[in-house]
Amino acid sequence: MVKTTRSAAAAAGAAKQASSDPTEAKCGPVEAPAAKPASTGENLALWNRLKRTDPKATKPFQRSGGFRGTQIDPTWRLQQMTESFGPVGRGWGYEQLEWTVVERMVFICVRVWYRDPVTGEQLWTGPQWGGTEITRRRRDGSEEPNDEAFKMSITDAVGKCLVQVGLAADVHMGQFDDSKYREESEAYFSAKANPDTQPAAVEAFEKEIREKLAKVEDLDALDLLWRGGVSSRVREIGIVDRAAQNRITSYFSQKKAEIVAQDRAAA
């Protein structure tokens, strides 16, 4: 067994980080700071926001021994974190805590930090290890050094850390084994990429609907408006923004109730 630890400078840097940070910069148990009680919805808000995986960013794999699984594109993970928190180094990032080489494998321990989208507070995941073989086989069966072993180990560790906040959790929970779920995910990311479902476009659409509803005077006109492309647009918006979908449908419900009340009063 061969074991190589970090340099003295790296160790000193980690010690300095540990002394200035409320959590210990090492791969071991970390005592979490006290947190105020929150509802289940609040606790799962970030998890639910990150858990769904784009099927286009996945591919199946099989290892020796028959183990099968779903591989997630590492670059897609970085894109999702950047979309949710901002550029790496500003809204989120990661740091290497330890590394070691044991029995022909390099192991690296990292932890990920990110800024709370609401408060701006810097938060940390727990530390995770990633490991990769330091050699790889050529086609003729001989071995050669794996010059990407360290990078692959960091990628592995970062991916494990990101699961802790919910990123691509559906893959790890086995939901991708369900073909119907994968189809729903394809529809979700397709709708998410549609310019008509972007926040600014949805806001403009809501404003347009409110203006049109103000001019509606009877149930026939209300039904005509709903069937004139609004219903399909609302369904697509609902795939990525259920709250906006509910608001728009409520506008129609409220307008219908107003028209019915007016008709009864006039009868």
Structure description:
The chain has 267 residues and is an alpha+beta fold. The protein folds into two domains: 8-175, Enolase-like, domain 1, CATH 3.30.390; 194-266. The chain is 50% helix and 18% strand. The chain is built from nine helices and eight strands. Strands 3, 4, 5 and 6 form a four-stranded antiparallel beta sheet that branches. Strands 1-2 form a two-stranded antiparallel sheet. Strand 4 (105-115) and strand 5 form a beta hairpin. Helix 6 (179-192) crosses helix 8 and helix 7 (199-215) runs parallel beside helix 9. It starts with 7 loop residues before the first helix and ends with a helix.
CATH topology of the largest domain: Enolase-like, domain 1
Distance between the termini: 92 Å
Kindly state the number of beta strands.
8
Order of helices and strands: HHEEHEEEEEEHHHHHH
> What gyration radius follows from the Cα positions, in whole Å?
26 Å
* Binned strand content: 15-25%
Rounded average pLDDT: 86
Total number of helices: 9
> Runs with pLDDT <50, length 5+?
1-25
Give the helix/strand layout:
Elements: H1 8-20, H2 40-50, E1 58-62, E2 68-72, H3 74-85, E3 92-102, E4 105-115, E5 122-124, E6 128-133, E7 135-137, E8 143-145, H4 149-163, H5 169-172, H6 179-192, H7 199-215, H8 219-240, H9 242-266
Antiparallel strand pairs: 1-2, 3-4, 4-5, 4-6, 7-8
Which structural traits does this protein have?
Enolase-like, domain 1, 267 residues, elongated, two-stranded antiparallel sheet, disordered N terminus, 50% helix, 4-stranded antiparallel β-sheet, alpha+beta
